[in-house]
């Protein structure tokens, strides 16, 4: 039986790497797949992983119709065994419904990868529909970590190094690496407590460097 599977985790938890590995393993067994993505950091029509791998992909704009695309490919005599769908948080709920229909009516496996919540910790509409419709939901095993060492569960956005909670939902960007200058718009993965309190690594560092003795010790961070 074909399945709609949703692989989710914070930014930088290995989703795109897993998407490329999944494609590799299925293709190595002679299965024929199609790779889709939307707004990848590496540019349009590319699925890229921070481990350095990348693959050509089909870009998914808002008006793209998965059902029409797959039925068209099959009608022209093509073979489609599975779909890899990266950055699925950016797909519309209607597109997620098309993916579920492809699984049910065409018996084609769909592997979708994406983050669950945006920088405000609200679900992306596409991810919410995936949670509602997926046969199986898998949380990535490699834990991305908050600066405090706890498992990171939330994606924070920073503008000039300061965490923000207002702005456009879609802004392509990357997590900052240690020691790097903060970019104009960047992201940082945090535990819930530090996301809720707006306490990024940079702010925690600044607070702990204030000369005055802290009334409650470091525990207030
Ligand atoms: N230099 C590195 N050495 C080993 N692992 C790395 C390195 N750089 C990134 N990674 C791994 O790659 C993961 C990010 O992979 P990626 O597929 O781009 O994530 P996602 O698609 O979830 O944002 C990191 O969590 C880390 O485990
Ligand atoms: C939280 C959040 C993220 N984005 C963007 C930033 C990146 O370009 C992608 C996530 O990619 P990754 O492979 O999972 O690292 O999403 C956004 O547009 N809006 C947000 O709120």
Automatic annotation (TrEMBL):
Active site located where?
87 (proton acceptor)
Stored InterPro entries: P-loop_NTPase, Thymidine_kinase
UniProt EC number: 2.7.1.21
Q: Please list the GO terms describing molecular function.
A: ATP binding; thymidine kinase activity
Where along the chain is substrate bound?
A: 170-173, 187
The UniProt entry, under Gene3D superfamilies, shows: 3.30.60.20, P-loop containing nucleotide triphosphate hydrolases (3.40.50.300)
Q: Which family does it belong to?
A: Belongs to the thymidine kinase family.
Q: What is this protein called?
A: Thymidine kinase
Q: What species was this sequence derived from?
A: Nocardioides iriomotensis
